[in-house]
Specification:
With 294 residues, the chain is mainly alpha-helical. It has helices spanning 3-29, 38-52, 58-68, 76-83, 85-96, 103-124, 129-151, 166-182, 190-199, 207-229, 234-254, 260-284. Helix 1 (3-29) runs antiparallel to helix 5, helix 6 runs parallel beside helix 8 and helix 6 (103-124) packs parallel to helix 10.
């Protein structure tokens, strides 16, 4: 393992120690008493199983939350980042050490995404309920569109490189800053990362360590903002974290091949329905509507 990856993994462990301490502090400060349910654990297992296979976890989790009607919409962004962080930590360890990417690019991409998350979490944790509903509704539609593109073969084919230089390097790092910020409102970064890196001439497989490494630092950093505000659901977050451990291990070590195209079509239907539901909730809750909730 090269020095860059060693430093990255060291930082990953340190940040996640802070994440655990922050979660404990937040639970005490905001007097959170909710416990995870079996449904929360199952959701964590299923969605992080999909994440480890490259489908993503944020959009499916949001859809499942919307179907069952909890947690509250304004708590979903924080719950996604907090709950899926354990799986992101594991995936970072597995993929960063198994796929070779140019070290400088990997380090700068992860650093820029982390900086974007720090900025984004501070903004999202103060957004009103309706703004979050609108943002997540659009995010779900974007995710569904990416899934459709993947299934019909409209994604860029990609190149053969595992590194970038010059303006392509700068563009990739800048885009990853934006993706890190957008993760705070529930937009997963895998499909956008694959598209951007493929268009810049990189091998699609290179997106895995960059995406997983970004998630591994973005989510705990973003979670710190949600810990301060208390805008996350503790019980579901804990259940997702517990279930996600099994989901990642099964996907990475046991499951070798699945009909991913068919699975993505199913996810598309579920996510699109949830997007419409989220946008309808935002419409029904807009100011001036009789019976609207804030």
């Amino acid at each position: 393992m090269n020095a860059t990856k060693t430093v990255l993994l060291g930082v990953l462990v340190l940040v996640n120690v802070v994440f655990v301490a922050g979660w404990i502090w937040s639970v005490k400060r905001h007097r959170m008493r909710a416990r995870p349910t079996l449904a929360d654990v199952v959701i964590g297992f299923a969605t992080d199983f999909l994440d480890a296979l490259g489908i993503g976890s944020f959009a499916p989790t949001t859809a499942l939350f919307k179907f069952r009607g909890s947690p509250a919409d304004e708590l979903i962004p924080g719950t996604l980042n907090v709950g899926h962080n354990v799986a992101a930590f594991m995936e970072t360890l597995l993929y960063v050490t198994s796929v070779a990417v140019e070290p400088k690019l990997l380090a700068c991409m992860i650093a820029s995404a982390t900086a974007g998350a720090w900025l984004g979490a501070g903004v999202v944790s103060r957004l009103p309920r309706r703004t979050i509903q609108l943002s997540m509704g659009v995010a779900l539609l974007v995710a569904a569109a990416f899934f459709v593109m993947r299934n019909i073969g409209a994604m860029p084919p990609g190149g053969t490189e595992y590194g970038l230089e010059g303006w392509r390097f700068a563009l990739a790092v800048g885009v990853n800053f934006v993706l890190g910020a957008l993760m705070c409102i529930g937009i997963g970064n895998y499909a956008p990362s694959v598209i951007v890196l493929s268009l810049l001439g990189m091998h699609p497989l290179a997106a895995f360590p960059i995406m997983m490494g970004s998630d591994g630092l973005v989510q705990p950093v973003a979670s710190l903002g949600f810990f301060r505000s208390g805008r996350f659901a503790h019980g579901p977050s804990l259940g997702i974290a517990l279930g996600g451990i099994g989901g990642v291990l099964v996907a990475f070590y046991i499951v070798k091949q699945l009909p991913l195209t068919a699975m993505r079509w199913l996810v598309i239907v579920v996510v699109a329905f949830a997007a419409i539901s989220m946008l309808r909730s935002a419409r029904d809750g807009r100011p001036g509507v009789p019976g609207a909730t804030g």
